[in-house]
Amino acid sequence: MLAKRIIPCLDVRDGRVVKGTQFQNIQDVDDPVVLGKQYSELGADELVFYDITASHEKRSIFLDVVERVAEEVHIPFTVGGGIATVDDFRTVLKAGADKVSVNSAAVRNPGLINLASERFGDQCVVLSIDTKFVNGQWNVFVQGGRKDTGLELFEWAREGVQRGAGEIVLNVMNADGVKTGYDVEVTGQLAQTVNVPVVASGGAGKNEHFLDVLKNGADAALAASVFHFGEIEIQDLKQFLSNEDLPIRLG
Amino acid sequence: MIAIIDYGAGNLRNVKHALNLLELESFITNQPDDLSRANGMILPGVGAFGHAMDRLREKGFDQKIVEEVANGKPLLGICLGMQLLFDKSYEHGEHEGLGIIPGEIVRFNTDLKVPHMGWNQLETENHYKNHPMVRGIQDGDYVYFVHSFFAKANNEQDVLFKTDYGQRFTSAVLRDHVVGMQFHPEKSSKVGMQLLKNFGEMVSREHISSN
């Protein structure tokens, strides 16, 4: 049976892992390659490396991280952050990434999803969506959650999949960084709306939060600080989920 | 020395990194003649079947691979590279494959999400339970898949592993010294490494027995 996936996310700035709470108060955590390898050994099913480096000149430091991860870590990993063109896709895929996630650039230029999926295959195009409940509907936000696009979540997700996105990461901003649980309802609803895997993101604080969202339609669950700060051990989490009868890869 | 065949499809370096870790010597090549000096061959691949076969033919790899297999040289096809071993695929039309393993490639017909993406389990077919290729592998072990099409082998005897995704499909084949894996061993952590190691051992065995 296809397993539910547990995915640690590593925000990387200038070659180091950082994690903010609701996109603020960023703290330095560790070396991305060392941490990625450790997560892989503890049983992480996939990894996400998100480049939040502000300056374009330091892009090469991140690419170096991607190459080192590809050499040393033998589970799939996604790279995101600052991906704006088909060339950006090619560069990180060539460096060894398995999937590439786009967010703001896809909203600005939806054709990018078509181009990338035609060139490299649907399976490596991940559409990452930041959403927040505003005036009675789920809106899509961009620029690290600062700008409301006015787009409606489900419409945008459907369009993205139609254009060739092979997976959706749904980051519910109301829940992000506050550790009160994933938004199970909107995540489950999205998983029913699209026929590609949906990865839940934002809000994980304890084991039960993972169970809730994975039981209700999410194919995978992503988290950062709870793993980085050792509040949740991946091995314990996966054993817990397996004991609750979810299909989980142990070991 | 294992040759990793470069015909312009997919990331070959990840396969090489995995072999490096296992201390299996390998080189990436886009020259069919290089296959003569290798002891084993790996045919990776991501993308569409028809396009991949065109690239293999353009470069002259198709005949060379078939020739080397006939000489007894071990071959491992990974993902699309496994599908290419078969007679025919129905991905975007009808395309002829390498014809090394009898059977064809068809699309998943299921209500489940396609592509079949993520970690899923292996079950070894009874006739291969004691084969060295499955050494260290347990039923229920997870490996990483990303694919929308799968192989239907004509002969049950060629099936190595099956996996359940709405139906039990063939997730690996083995026929003499030709192995095909629908999943990505290079991305499948310890289980994948064990399978690559087993292939590496097959390569050394065949090499010793042919000298």
From TrEMBL, chain A:
Keywords: Amino-acid biosynthesis, Cytoplasm, Histidine biosynthesis, Lyase
Cellular component GO terms held in the UniProt record: cytoplasm
Family stated for the protein in its record: Belongs to the HisA/HisF family.
Chemical reaction(s) catalysed: 5-[(5-phospho-1-deoxy-D-ribulos-1-ylimino)methylamino]-1-(5-phospho-beta-D-ribosyl)imidazole-4-carboxamide + L-glutamine = D-erythro-1-(imidazol-4-yl)glycerol 3-phosphate + 5-amino-1-(5-phospho-beta-D-ribosyl)imidazole-4-carboxamide + L-glutamate + H(+)
Domain of life assignment: Bacteria
Cross-referenced NCBIfam families: hisF
Complexes and interactors: Heterodimer of HisH and HisF.
InterPro entries with a match to the protein in the record: Aldolase_TIM, His_biosynth, HisF, IGPS_HisA/HisF, RibuloseP-bd_barrel
Principal localisation: cytoplasm
Name of this protein: Imidazole glycerol phosphate synthase subunit HisF
Pathway in which this enzyme or protein is active: Amino-acid biosynthesis; L-histidine biosynthesis; L-histidine from 5-phospho-alpha-D-ribose 1-diphosphate: step 5/9
TrEMBL record, chain B:
Entry annotation: catalytic residues: C79, H184, E186
Highest taxon of the lineage: Bacteria
Keyword RNA-binding annotated: no
Residue stretches spanning the membrane: none
GO biological process assignments: L-histidine biosynthetic process
Gene3D superfamilies reported in the protein's UniProt record: 3.40.50.880
PROSITE patterns, per the entry: GATASE_COBBQ (PS51274), GATASE_TYPE_1 (PS51273)
Keywords: Amino-acid biosynthesis, Cytoplasm, Glutamine amidotransferase, Histidine biosynthesis, Hydrolase, Lyase, Transferase
GO cellular component assignments: cytoplasm
Gene Ontology MF terms: glutaminase activity; imidazoleglycerol-phosphate synthase activity; lyase activity
InterPro entries for this protein: Class_I_gatase-like (IPR029062), GATASE (IPR017926), Imidazole-glycPsynth_HisH (IPR010139)
Reaction catalysis annotation: L-glutamine + H2O = L-glutamate + NH4(+); 5-[(5-phospho-1-deoxy-D-ribulos-1-ylimino)methylamino]-1-(5-phospho-beta-D-ribosyl)imidazole-4-carboxamide + L-glutamine = D-erythro-1-(imidazol-4-yl)glycerol 3-phosphate + 5-amino-1-(5-phospho-beta-D-ribosyl)imidazole-4-carboxamide + L-glutamate + H(+)
EC number, as in UniProt: 4.3.2.10, 3.5.1.2
Cellular localisation: Cytoplasm
Record pathway: Amino-acid biosynthesis; L-histidine biosynthesis; L-histidine from 5-phospho-alpha-D-ribose 1-diphosphate: step 5/9
Residue ranges annotated for the Glutamine amidotransferase domain, each copy included: 4-199
CDD domains per record: GATase1_IGP_Synthase
Job of this protein: IGPS catalyzes the conversion of PRFAR and glutamine to IGP, AICAR and glutamate. The HisH subunit catalyzes the hydrolysis of glutamine to glutamate and ammonia as part of the synthesis of IGP and AICAR. The resulting ammonia molecule is channeled to the active site of HisF.
Quaternary organization: Heterodimer of HisH and HisF.
Name under which the protein is recorded: Imidazole glycerol phosphate synthase subunit HisH
Gene assigned in the entry: hisH
